[in-house]
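Support request, please re-run this one:
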Amino acid sequence: MCGILGVVATTPANQIIYDGLMVLQHRGQDAAGIVTAENAQFHLHKGSGLVRDVFRTRNMRALVGNMGIGHVRYPTAGCAGSAAEAQPLYVNSPFGIVLGHNGNLTNTEELKRELFRQDLRHVNTNSDSEVLLNVLAHELQEATTNHKLDPAAIFAAISGVHRRCRGAYAVVAMIAGYGLLAFRDPHGIRPLVIGKNETARGREYMVASESVAFDTLGFALLRDVAPGEAVFIDPAGNFYSRQCAANAACHPCIFEYVYLARPDSMLDGISVYETRLRMGEHLADKIRDQYSDLDIDVVIPIPDSSRPSAMQLANRLGLTYREGFIKNRYIGRTFIMPGQSLRTKSVRQKLNAIGVEFKDKNVLLVDDSIVRGTTSREIVQMAREAGARKVYFASAAPPVRFPNVYGIDMPSAQELIATGRSDDEIALEIGADKLIYQDLSALIESVRQVNPKITRFETSCFDGRYVTGDITPGYLARLQAQRDDDAQTDAAAQLDLNLAEVD
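Re-run finished. Output below.
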């Protein structure tokens, strides 16, 4: 899960992109980057850290031009924390091309071999985004006649990308001297939306991971980029689009609605906030039908993304709703923090319990999901320390039992608390008196009710069904082995750091 944004404006694009990335910061806190274009020249600045820390006034002044793209990174492939893999990425042949990518390719190793042996291209990092960039560059070269590009050639190149690349990818790119390009994989797994703004100087366009970026910048939501579609906008603001994939179908990642996206966003014609309200309703129905024996005094959400579900659950069951945790907003989202030890340490820095809401009460805690269980375990303990008599725990999502290979940091089944455990065993692991999970059918219905036109979602982390059809047990085993190798490398690096501190 990363955040991407591209704009063709009538005024300097640097501040627009910066402000848009600030709104998309929840999608990635590892690194940030902006590229602007002035005529056929790119101006790039990127680095590790939050948007506000990466960009200073001197950096912004150097980002000249009315067109640009931006990226906030959350590492799922490659090396976490590597400045070399901060995006946007750049190649200079056959054209100057910069690219920002949200998602994860599932045939990266195969593509690397093709690039080296057939396309005669070299990849410098472990990033699948660099592989995708080089595939795009090669396909543009193949589609070009007399070293000239036009929209038809660009769309032909994207068709080639779709034929070769598998997995999840929402992309913004710029081609030096030509314009802004955006496209989405044929399954539409990761989101990408188009906005426009009418100004006295002309029409401006923006593409972004979430519509909330438009709201803060005065752009109106035009529509989603369709699965398999490519959109091209030249510097004059001329807009072109084409379906570039055969048999494209919309299978958006349902976890976007559970946790990843902001509640004030619209994705694939679906209000994220409304889906979370409906999740609460379905969860309330399950508690009423199957857990009526629970003596619940108060419903308390785990801030922030579970609030709509918890509020609606309490309303439907006629229970008291209270805020029981205060959140430190200067700590990042623990689920997307790389490294288990960092996640564990940050939970208590991020949340603090309000004792009066817990003391001598049977409390139902509501969270959006339970992934590794680290946060849940700490929160249950905090509730008990604050004086709760009993602590029940409800998840607005089903058990996460399978790796996600499409751009969410769930690549290892061994790290998922629900894998190989029953609900009662998970409750014991996190210290809860009772654990209640949403049913997958209810979760799907919660989202589908908001837009009945979408009938299928990417739900692999819950049911192990991968919509791209290319994920085998062997592939998942290789992911696990790579994860283990990375963990050993990280542990060795931490040991070296500790020894250095002792010396």
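The CA atoms of residues 6 and 183 lie 11 Å apart. The first strand starts at residue 3 and ends at 8.
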